[in-house]
Specification:
- The protein has 323 residues and is of the alpha+beta class.
- It folds into 2 domains: 103 residues, no CATH class; 146 residues, Nucleotidyltransferase, domain 5 (2-Layer Sandwich), CATH 3.30.420.
- It is 31% helix and 16% strand.
- It has 9 helices and 10 strands.
- Strand 2 and strand 3 form a beta hairpin.
- The longest helix is centred in the first third of the chain and has 16 residues.
- The chain is globular, with a radius of gyration of 23 Å.
Length: 323
Amino acid sequence: MTDVQWAAVRPLLPVPGWLQGRGGQPEAYCHRAILDAVHYLVDNGTKWRALPADFPPWDRVYAFFRRWRDHGLLTEFHDRLRGQVREKAGRDPEPSAGVIDSQSVKADAVVGSASRGFDGGKLINGRKRHAVVDTLGLLLAVLVTPADTGDRAAAQTLLARVTEAHHRLELVWGDGGYTGSLIAHCLTALALVLAIVKRSDDMRGFVVLPKRWIVERFFAHLMRTRRLVRDFERTTSSRGDGLLVDDPAHDPPPGPATPRASVNCPGSDSASQPRATSRFALDRNASTFAGTSSNPNAAAISWQASGPRPSRSWSARTCTMRW
């Protein structure tokens, strides 16, 4: 994460309770390092235990991610960031129109049979992502189901969730898979107009359809990340949070990007630079976290390279790594 990105993200992050005087143990790792690790995990498709040593320990990163997910902080942070992007684009923070569609992806062997299915139309054995985006292509809500779930059945649950969270939403565009009784259900139960954008029978080859291309672009953006190309999650809740992490709202804002310090490698031109390590030290600058400028006496934790890295030793008796 560049300094420009961090400057835009930091005010939107939740403030730890111990910095607000509610007690509790101070956090040992900076939120910037945690976000970098989670983004690296989603972008490169690695395992939690395979996170590079330049990030905090994998179990601490997963603990942060799980805590933010279970308490709804990840969704809240995403909604704040989406509203900020919409305001910069001259839009209202709450959208009034959206686009709905679905995408089927293959599931890994770790995915149980209870949460996977076979999509006969796409000939894919796995899961299906049902997503609603606004007119800028930013995610409003997502629902992950087995691939054999029909679009109309999933849309009833998804659209009810979207209208409950976004009260200004009045119009949603969809493809031909959302026709039938779903249109009348949205109008009577949700006070929502579901407009169908159909492909003409006279069209041949690839044709960009009005409004539908917005959600198709969103799915194409998801396929650029390795962890989302195939479904590796045992639970559907973790898969939905992975889509939130890779939403286009998290793209860097326009402006010069500040490069981060590089890690030395033998034979590289950066031999004169200090080695970047993954040790962590206390920083008494309270502005490390969001909303802490009013409390100058609070101690914050920042991630920084400090001193040589501890050597590793292997125990032949237990075959475990010691630091």
